[in-house]
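As described in the Methods, two query proteins were run sequentially through the folding procedure within a single session, without resetting any intermediate state between them. The first query and its resulting structure tokens are shown here.
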Amino acid sequence: MSKEFGERLLSLLQRQGTTQKELAKRINTTEATLSRYISGDREPKANVVANIATALHTTSDYLLGIEQDGFDYPRVERLLARNSANITVEQKRALINALFGEDQY
């Protein structure tokens, strides 16, 4: 797990323009510990994997190599369709803003 996890983690950091220091602060760990996760010298516990996934807007499954793509459109579409009645106007605005970069609602 470690090598693939580290590669995916580093790739996400680079794509998002986030430093190891920034992520370490977000997940309440040290930069050295995060570096060990990336290099494969240390394996994070499940709760740390979940925290990293949340901080990087991805899934634990993606980080662990279970899911091949960081974004599963059909899955997201199903989740939105199932929960659309429970999404508030503010949440809809936030989704639209996240997708289009501006408030279109």
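Immediately afterward, the second query was submitted; its sequence and tokens are:
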Amino acid sequence: MRFMVGVMTAFMQIVLGAIMMKLVEESYIGRVNGTITPLLMAGTLTGSALAGPLMKSITLVPVYGLSAIIILIAAFASLSMKLGESTASKMDQSGMHLD
């Protein structure tokens, strides 16, 4: 399970890095990446630290349910980002195509 979490964390970092490059100005990419990476690692460590006590206080199925709810909230929040429109607005502001 820890191996799969590590693989998924690496996958999410790659995806978030690609999205970040679309949304953030070039001069701020390093700063934003330097902020996001520790937050991802802290989230992974916090989730791992809370998993044991949560499973001892409630059973495994509600812990998985709580995890699913958190993932759904994050998925719905990410749907509101509208990546296509922000890329188009960047293109309009600079007057040139980014691709």
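The mean pLDDT is 77. We note this only descriptively and draw no conclusion about the first query from it.
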